[in-house]
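DM from R.C. (forwarded with permission)

"hey, sorry to bug you on a friday — could you get me a structure for this? deadline for the figure draft is monday and I only need the backbone to look sensible"
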Amino acid sequence: AIVKASEASIHPNWFCYDSRGIAKQLKVENPEVLSKAEEYATKLLQNPLLGSAPISPNDGPGWDSCFDPGDLQFITDKVFEFANKVAQDVGPAFPGKYIGVYSYGGYSCAPSVPLQSNLLVQIATAFDYCGQSISDRISRVAAQGATIGIRDYYDVWKWYKDNPPNTKGIVKQIPFYANNKVKVINAESGDGWGAR
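My reply, with the result:
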């Protein structure tokens, strides 16, 4: 983690709090948090086996004390400005490596800010709360300059009970992704998915 939630008692201004007052998200506009994120990314990217460092926010909501939780475009832009700044500052020391960030949940809108090419944006195929299609999100994120990845859900046990509905559809998606310059795909999948 960039910063552990347990540090909220020491550095309360590093966090955003949910409606119950629980530290949930990092305050991405705080310069000290940015510095911590850059230290974290630098440490990870020094490992020759790693090609990227993740800078995505925590799962779920929790922006209430920092931003209007209903303004998902604003939250998205703030998250991407933060990740992009890390990519801009850390990237020159690590050519060919990436800073990774999901486009997911409360920050799943296509960002409206320019992005570095060493920012790897992995667009989630579920939990899109902005109502934008995958193809629209891919083209809009690419137009901002980022490298594109896909975060998919091939066989989530809780959803499919090891019987995913569209395994053959994945075969059709891959050429679409390739034609749209998607560089990386990762996906949740259960043990039985590979046997399909």
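R.C.: lifesaver. DSSP finds five helices and seven strands in the chain.
me: no worries. Helices lie at 31-45, 72-90, 134-143, 157-160, 167-179.
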